[in-house]
Amino acid sequence: MSAHLEFPESHTVTFRLHVNGEEREVSAEPRTHLADVLREHCGLTATHLGCEQGVCGACTVEIDGVPQRSCLQSATRFEGREIRTLEAFENDPLGAALRRAFSEEHALQCGYCTPGMLITARDIVQRLPQADEARIREELAGNLCRCTGYRGIVRAIQRVLETYPHESSDGR
Amino acid sequence: MTGAPPDTQAKGIGARLARKEDARFLSGRGEFVADIRRPGMLDVAFVRAPVAHARIVDIEKPEGWESLVYTMADMAEVKPIVAASKLPGFQKSEQYPLAKDKVRFVGEMVAMCVAPSRARAEDLAEQVFVDYEDLPVVSDMHAAANGTAEGKLHEHWDSNVFLETQVDNKAGIADDVVSVRRQLSTSRQCQVPLEGRGVVCWWDHRLNRLEMTSAAQMPHINRTGLAECLGLDEGQVRVVSPDVGGGFGYKGILLPEEICCAWLAMKLDRPIRWIEDRNEHLSANANCREHAYDISVHVERSGRLAGIDCDAIVDSGAYSSYPFSACLEAAQIGSILPGPYKMDSYSCHTRSAATNKPPILPYRGVARTGVCFALEVMLDIAARELGIEPFELRERSLVGPDDMPYTNITNKLFDSGDYIACMHRAVEALDWSGWRARQAETNGRKRIGLGLATFCEQGAHGTSVYHGWGIPMVPGYEQCNARVTTDGILELQIGAHSHGQSMETTMAQVANTVLGIDPEQVRIMHGDTGGSPYSTGTWGSRNAVMSGGAVAAACEKLADRVRRLASHLMDVAADDLIFENGGVVSGDRSRSMTLADIAHTWYRAPQLLPDDVDPAGLGLVAGYKMRPDMGTFSYATHACAVEVDTVTGAVKLLDYAICEDGGVLLNPMVVEGQLLGGLAQGIGTALYEEIPFDDEAQPLASTLADYMVPGAAEMPHLTIEHMETPSPFSTFGQKGIGEGGAIAPPAAITNAVNDALGGLGAEIHSVPISPERVIAALEAAHESD
């Protein structure tokens, strides 16, 4: 028989978020940051937490098309914004090209930083089509990886920059 | 047979096969501990000690919420963690999962609070009042080791030393040797896998057992330890290590948090979750690499190494962690300091000092990173003294190809390799002479320096290496459960765990090499004590050799069974059957059968089997042990060029080259990945990563903003060269090589910096080589002028 437990009251607020093209109604404490709401309330666990301080980049998501940390601000502040997590890029041709390049270049080992890396990589490819290796490395400054030594990640992004969007639009 | 079968030839050992595990991680479908949900799950937050050494006078739980807060007094039936070594003189510690009577390091857990969310559990933790009576803090390992510290970690001990060891192989050396002596040190670090530790556990009433999901490198060891501390039989504990976001030694431990959460899950009969945050990770668990050496090397005028004398101290922290113990690292220094060199004389005295800091854990390379730093830095200092290049000195003393197999001065049996050729290839890959020319042109504010470091990495240590330590675990036979499903899929269960090492791919490549089966048809299941054979798990660069050996042994045995069935079904002599493309084919290629056909017959058409068929069928357990089991010795030389700014103290890596020999590579892409990741961590050790502690043993770098992990821009241009000298002692000639990348960088980079500063009389003796340490070295040189 589970013990009956009572807990100190908590104050929750109800708000709406637009996540991966869907409208979500969330009830959470106002202090809950976006990553926790995505993971704990929306069941979207691709977004990982590495430091909850804005340094490691594992929690990077797209807000109105721009990469942003999801660990630094209360989720309530994202009302009315377009939030996209890695789960949104399942059928995205650029996402597919990046996934293939990441695998071919061994750009992941444990896979924990990978979702944040892919969001940042997607942004680099779209925003900086002329980026050279040094620029890619500089752009990756906000995403830490402890396994790969970064070479595979940099090469994967370079590979997609060289071939995208020249390849077929279905990403194959 | 219609159509050509798919070519599986390029998927076995040696192929750069893309990883089977990638797809789930790339789509965000990896399942890490924090991703797991259970109905009714509660979160835990711990009250952790804010002081390093104090008596607990009183713990006051928040009024009205006492039932949500637990202390060690509530867990009276739980036993402390004891990881004793049987080496003579070892003083053992008892670590209660929640502190009992006193706290011994900042971050030690004092109370556990439970609530429906972590944030609400932390609210409760903030309301727990603990009355501490300060005790004198032991923050300096030298004071602890030398008996000059005022404080005492463990009241019943004679001193603040877990263990003292002495290796004495001293022999006479020539009078006219050049002897150099220095005090060198490495700083306290944390491994910092990107995912921290974490636990989700509950009691399963159907199976009457604890279900423990934990980010663990060695789930079977955790299971044993949990059963011991909780007073359960092992059948009542299942440990599952799901996807794990990096380990590097950080997760090779029985956690006090696991014991607390398990106890609470049983107490409340609710699923319990604890997910470590980065502050807990860095402040309560800064747990590795802090070594101090007083070392002398003696070199003949010819450049030949005559001997080493060393006195080493390792800051082992407050407790002995399970299973590796507090003494493994320091005692290992005594046995591995000679590295890959021949010498006449050797002595080494070591002490594992107990201080008010987090308990020591092995970090990638374990003591090797420290000893490589100590010895290789000294060899370059000696070479400068003799006026010869560092590789000239080393080539006179490295173990040579004709010496193999070679037993060194501490009785290590080297299996194979050409260390001298390897070193020269690294030197050439860097373009050493080209950099020397450039160096001669620059002697202003920014100075160029060159350095190299050579080491050997013993991997897959066996029973004969470990039983002598007398610690809670001794690696023995590694095993694999293998079975074929009704439709011909090969299922392999291993007791080790892969958390980035790519074993789902490389073990399938091993199966392909033995059975010809497509790796896509092979499922590797690991990290679950529920079905896999016992294993000491993933540590010490052991699984390419040990799990690889076990998978090969299981596949060989299975091949035998399949061959006998196929022989009957195909009417072909068993020894005339060849495995290829996921089936068997007769020597004259006239008849073939797929594994699926054979499996279908075994499971679903047994009427076709002969009466004398082996009833054990298509499932089995096979085991593997290396013979001799000293381990494999991979090795490498790292060479680099740096630029040192003598005004700011900044060090820039200009170029880097590695030549390594890991024997037969299961998957060269994976090996390079291990090398690159290790290199990044080694560069962190060399230049950036340090958690300083003040005199009160307060950690001073408790966030990733203070503890600097290398980013993409910090990695240098790199050339990698492979040599592949097979080990005569492993199944395919493969060697363990997972840690090597992290071993040599501090030594190679320090040597390069000292080369750059040599003309100014300055020398670096400690890593990381922060700008402050460079400036201090330059100022010291200036003052001594």
From TrEMBL, chain A:
<dbReference type="InterPro" id="IPR001041">
    <property type="entry name" value="2Fe-2S_ferredoxin-type"/>
</dbReference>
<keyword id="KW-0001">2Fe-2S</keyword>
<dbReference type="InterPro" id="IPR036884">
    <property type="entry name" value="2Fe-2S-bd_dom_sf"/>
</dbReference>
<dbReference type="Pfam" id="PF01799">
    <property type="entry name" value="Fer2_2"/>
</dbReference>
<dbReference type="InterPro" id="IPR012675">
    <property type="entry name" value="Beta-grasp_dom_sf"/>
</dbReference>
<protein>
    <submittedName>
        <fullName>Carbon-monoxide dehydrogenase small subunit protein</fullName>
        <ecNumber>1.2.99.2</ecNumber>
    </submittedName>
</protein>
<keyword id="KW-0479">Metal-binding</keyword>
<dbReference type="InterPro" id="IPR051452">
    <property type="entry name" value="Diverse_Oxidoreductases"/>
</dbReference>
<dbReference type="Pfam" id="PF00111">
    <property type="entry name" value="Fer2"/>
</dbReference>
<dbReference type="InterPro" id="IPR002888">
    <property type="entry name" value="2Fe-2S-bd"/>
</dbReference>
<dbReference type="GO" id="GO:0051537">
    <property type="term" value="F:2 iron, 2 sulfur cluster binding"/>
</dbReference>
<dbReference type="GO" id="GO:0046872">
    <property type="term" value="F:metal ion binding"/>
</dbReference>
<keyword id="KW-0560">Oxidoreductase</keyword>
<dbReference type="GO" id="GO:0016491">
    <property type="term" value="F:oxidoreductase activity"/>
</dbReference>
<dbReference type="InterPro" id="IPR036010">
    <property type="entry name" value="2Fe-2S_ferredoxin-like_sf"/>
</dbReference>
<keyword id="KW-0408">Iron</keyword>
<dbReference type="InterPro" id="IPR006058">
    <property type="entry name" value="2Fe2S_fd_BS"/>
</dbReference>
<feature type="domain" description="2Fe-2S ferredoxin-type">
    <location>
        <begin position="13"/>
        <end position="89"/>
    </location>
</feature>
<keyword id="KW-0411">Iron-sulfur</keyword>
Automatic annotation (TrEMBL), chain B:
<dbReference type="InterPro" id="IPR037165">
    <property type="entry name" value="AldOxase/xan_DH_Mopterin-bd_sf"/>
</dbReference>
<dbReference type="InterPro" id="IPR046867">
    <property type="entry name" value="AldOxase/xan_DH_MoCoBD2"/>
</dbReference>
<keyword id="KW-0560">Oxidoreductase</keyword>
<dbReference type="Pfam" id="PF02738">
    <property type="entry name" value="MoCoBD_1"/>
</dbReference>
<dbReference type="GO" id="GO:0016491">
    <property type="term" value="F:oxidoreductase activity"/>
</dbReference>
<protein>
    <submittedName>
        <fullName>Carbon-monoxide dehydrogenase large subunit protein</fullName>
        <ecNumber>1.2.99.2</ecNumber>
    </submittedName>
</protein>
<dbReference type="InterPro" id="IPR036856">
    <property type="entry name" value="Ald_Oxase/Xan_DH_a/b_sf"/>
</dbReference>
<dbReference type="InterPro" id="IPR016208">
    <property type="entry name" value="Ald_Oxase/xanthine_DH-like"/>
</dbReference>
<feature type="domain" description="Aldehyde oxidase/xanthine dehydrogenase a/b hammerhead">
    <location>
        <begin position="27"/>
        <end position="136"/>
    </location>
</feature>
<dbReference type="Pfam" id="PF01315">
    <property type="entry name" value="Ald_Xan_dh_C"/>
</dbReference>
<dbReference type="InterPro" id="IPR000674">
    <property type="entry name" value="Ald_Oxase/Xan_DH_a/b"/>
</dbReference>
<keyword id="KW-0500">Molybdenum</keyword>
<comment type="similarity">
    <text>Belongs to the xanthine dehydrogenase family.</text>
</comment>
<dbReference type="Pfam" id="PF20256">
    <property type="entry name" value="MoCoBD_2"/>
</dbReference>
<dbReference type="InterPro" id="IPR008274">
    <property type="entry name" value="AldOxase/xan_DH_MoCoBD1"/>
</dbReference>
<dbReference type="GO" id="GO:0005506">
    <property type="term" value="F:iron ion binding"/>
</dbReference>
